[in-house]
Design a protein that fits this description.
- This is DUF1918 domain-containing protein.
- InterPro entries: DUF1918 (IPR015035).
- With about 70 residues, the protein is mostly beta strands.
- The protein has one helix and five strands, in the order βββββα.
- The protein has a five-stranded antiparallel β-sheet with strand order 4-3-2-1-5.
Length: about 70
């Protein structure tokens, strides 16, 4: 998984009671865009260091804009 600051990480829910989460990547700490990432989560506004798991994927800022404009 590769990212750059400004990209978004999207974490799909794994349970019916959970919602999809997304957060903006502020910093990339791995070499060549690899995790871990410093992420600001939209739902809480908190910033955490995050290592994506199997339910996560990266979207560019442009992809996020396109998705939200639909």
């Amino acid at each position: 998984m590769k990212a750059t600051p400004g990209d978004w990480v999207v974490v799909e829910s794994t349970h019916l009671s959970e919602m999809r989460r997304h957060g903006q990547i502020l910093e990339v700490h791995g070499p060549a865009g690899d995790p871990p990432y410093l992420v600001r989560w939209d739902d809480t506004g908190t910033e955490t260091v995050f290592i994506p798991g199997p339910g996560a994927h990266i979207m560019t800022a442009e992809q996020m804009r396109e998705q939200h404009s639909r």
